Amino acid sequence: MKLWQKIFLLTLVLVILVVNVTAYVLLLNNHQLAIEREQQSAATRHVYLVAELQNSITYEQVVERTFPLDDVKTLGVAREVLDLQRDDPTLGATLFIDGERVYSVNSQPIPQEALMLSEPEFSSRIVEEEGRTYLLVSSSIPLSERTYQLVTSFEITSTFDLFLADFDLVRVIGIVAGLVVAGILLVLVSTLLGPLRNLSATTRQIAGGDLEQRATVHGNDEVAEVALNLNTMADSIEHNVTELEKLAEARRVFIGNLAHEMKTPLTSILGFADLLRIKRVINDDERLEYANVIVNETKRLQSLSGKLMELLIMGSMELSTERVSVNALVSDLSMTMQPIMRSRSTELTCTALAHDEHIDVDVELVKSLLYNLIDNSIRVVQPSGTVCLTAAVEGETVVLAVCDDGPGIPSEQIPQLIEPFYMLDKARTRKHGGAGLGLALCAEIARAHHTELVITSTLGEGTTVQVGFKKAGDHG
Amino acid sequence: MAGHILIVEDDENIAHMIAATLDIGGYTSEVSADGDLALSALASGSYDLVLLDIMLPKLDGFSVFERKGTNNTPVIFLTAMGDVPTKVKGLRMGAEDYIVKPFEAVELLARIEVVLRRTQNGNTPLSYQNITVEVDKHLVLRNSRPVTLTPKEFDLLAFFIRNVDIALTRERLLSAVWGYDFAGETRTVDTHVQQLRKKLDLHDSLVTIPRLGYRLESQRSDQSN
């Protein structure tokens, strides 16, 4: 059962119960009072009638000068007194002697037994007969040495009818009031629980994947609190999902590019190998050419898988850091690069620090990073162009930079440079056997050292890639 | 069946490989290295078919296809992207076929052949020396006299004639003629080849290539080195 139904039904039942019970108690109380009033008036009249009887008998005794009067005379006088009551139809009176009915006026349809069961002493009771209600009052009267019993009956049907009519009215009012209360309750409950319903709908939408949905917060009640918490939760879920989606997208792009980079050499290898196999006539030049392509493309695949492994390992590898002199690092690289520079007739200008500093890094990885950067630069500069490797101190940081006077990179492409498989010039990169992973690897090495590559470039003037490392503390 | 084919492919090696493959199929070809060059080549030249790579510098293959406008030259997409949505997109655009890299030379030739036959209403009979095959009429004439072949033998002969001088593996023959790759049944190919040799006297020209398959040769093998 829904909460609103529970609240509605419970409140409704409670209200109807309280209203009706109160009404009935009041009604019953009123009725009781009305009956008591009737009893009092009945008793008064009864007593008056008894007094009338006794007075008439005494008067007759005085007039007749007989004491006591005989039964016949006594009864005669009593009859006269009682006959005077005939004008009032609501009053009935019956006279008994020793349980024997001797006279009655306005005899109402009350059976003998009902009358006889009356107590001999003064008493009153209520009897119902043929749908009518009577109040009986009875008392014993000593008249002329005999004890008579007088029973008076008063019809109080109207009092009971009134009670029943009131009872019906209360019932009708109860039902009408119940309906009105039900209506008001429905409106109230649905207004109060409305925000809860909205909240529930919002929750459902969020659960259904519409992560941008937020609950509306009204006021500062409990529901508003829940709504606030829900929104906080949705925020964090949305954030996490977006991050995951980004990651998944990056991975998808990576795998797509990887597949493309692998399939390109594979297509050449398979194609040329197949040609070697199926061609009937093949001359030496062709065979050599086909085989060369196969060998070169296989090497490309090999280098791709090598770079991939490096990239993969970088993600999980622990750095083996050691303290190294910056100037030693620069001169070491300069030595390593010289043969390559000479073969390309490109010059590498190295600038060391005036006062040597030390940095805590994984030497092999940082060398590989700088090597890759210099290698990239060599490829873009014209023959007889210059590539420089400089070290500089900026505050607490040692900045190593590789610059060239090559053609430069369009600024909008700079952010994409470190993405795996991104190539500025596909044909040229491929010719060198590159797969577009070099800068991605450099960025990964920098990231492992908690720093990053800063690439600045001006078209037509050249490119500079900087990477900063924190200066090591005291020497030693 | 000769034809002039435009190869749109940015990788030099692959372009060269495709050109060499087309050459042994008897086709001439030209290469465009990017989307823009492909469009201008299409606008100025006349080709029987375009082999169009999708991942191209400047303008990708799909855009080239869209921008070639009313040019009705049939197109086969040639790409490393083998996923179903990309394939469906390519074919829905109106390409004749879609070949996923890497591919074997014979497969490329077979696909090209199917497309060219379909687009050129090629009813020209196939011929090889004194044998003529009329594919539509399912008729084989040797020295102008009909020869009775079973349907599979007929298809096999047609496939050999379409790929003269190309070594065909049993697997390739199986998938081309029987339509499935089933390594265990390569003996079926052997028996059919023997039937062809017997019925058409091809003992010398339909040669067995050890550990590979068969080749129908254009000249007697003793004339080549």
- Beta-strand fraction estimate of chain A: 15-25%
**How do the strands of the widest beta sheet of chain A line up side by side?**
2-1-5-4-3
Quaternary status of these chains?
Answer: heterodimer
Beta-sheet strand percentage of chain B?
A: 15-25%
**Protein structure class of chain B:** alpha/beta
Major sheet details of chain A: 5 strands, antiparallel
Mean of all residue-level pLDDT scores of chain A:
84
As a whole number of angstroms, the C-alpha radius of gyration of chain B is: 19 Å
CATH class of the largest domain in chain B: Alpha Beta
What is the CATH topology assignment of the largest domain in chain A?
Beta-Lactamase
Helix content range of chain B: 40-55%
CATH superfamily of the largest domain in chain B: Response regulator
Counting H and I runs of at least 4 residues, what is the number of helices of chain B? 8
Instruction: List the helices and strands of chain A in order.
Output: HHEEHEEEHHHEHEEHEEHHEE
| Broad shape of chain B | elongated
Question: Any overview of this molecule?
Answer:
Chain A is built from 10 helices and 12 strands. By secondary structure, chain A is of the alpha+beta class. The two termini of chain A are 76 Å apart. By secondary structure, chain B is of the alpha/beta class. Chain B folds into 2 domains: 4-119, Response regulator (Rossmann fold); 126-223, Arc Repressor Mutant, subunit A, CATH 1.10.10.10. In chain B, the strands form 3 sheets. In chain B, strands 2-1-3-4-5 form a 5-stranded parallel β-sheet, with helices on both faces. In chain B, helix 2 packs parallel to helix 3 (61-67) and helix 6 crosses helix 7. Chain B is elongated. Residues 221-225 of chain B have low confidence and may be disordered. The A-B interface holds A 256, 259-260, 263-272, 274-275, 277-281, 286, 290, 293, 296-297, 426-427, 430 and B 10-14, 16-18, 20-21, 24, 33, 55, 57, 80-81, 101-106, 165-168, 212, 215, 217, 224-225.
